[in-house]
Predict the structure.
Amino acid sequence: MSAEMIKAVAQVITALAWPTVILILLLTHRDSLAEVVRNLESIRVPGGAEIKIRNVVSNEARQIEQGDPEAAKRLTQQQFEAAARVARVAGNTDISVVRRQVQDLAGEYEAIRASLPSGDERTRRMETVVTKMRTLSRAALPLLLELTRSPSPGERLAAIATLQMAPRPDYLSWLAERFRTEKPFIQFHAAVALLSAARVLDHSHASDLKVAIRSAREAIGELKGSDRWNVLDAAERELAT
């Protein structure tokens, strides 16, 4: 056999052998390889942390809405657990990463309100944004003060979503003021935040809560039976128990 023939045969054998070797490795080390693939998301690439958090927030919100299409209208244990998981993911990242996530969601809310006519579809999509904001709430707590002072209605909505999940007594009057300055959608969620505060805060804050609820009622006027009025009514009843 000539040298050229031997070389050609060797190349054929090599070409056939490598796929076989790779197949054997895949079959015998599939658990280890799967772990490597799972860990790829932890590799530090530009924007990697933001992509990871965004994906986690979207996945958590999707699961919440699949389990409860009305999730944005009330607080559930599933939402608190989702917020805790997102906070763990965000725990090793700089707060600027979380800030950009909040700003993106705020911009999404504002774009939806500006581009769609009033109606069920617009409300549904805005509620999805609120659900995402809630899952990000624990990670966003350090940003609360700047969000409440923001000129962006979307960022103020993010502050309200955070206060729904983590009520703070020093923001009760700020929540009440939302009923004088914000759109009805944000007012509704401010009412949910007051209801959450009524359920969570110590009784020593009951007087401040009553003042905030009374102020909110006065701001929206005689809208008995509206969703905002009903939530405020529920908050008032909560304080009476």
About this structure: Residues 169-241 form one domain. Residues 156 and 214 are 21 Å apart (CA to CA). Residues 21-26, 33-46 have pLDDT under 50 and may be disordered.
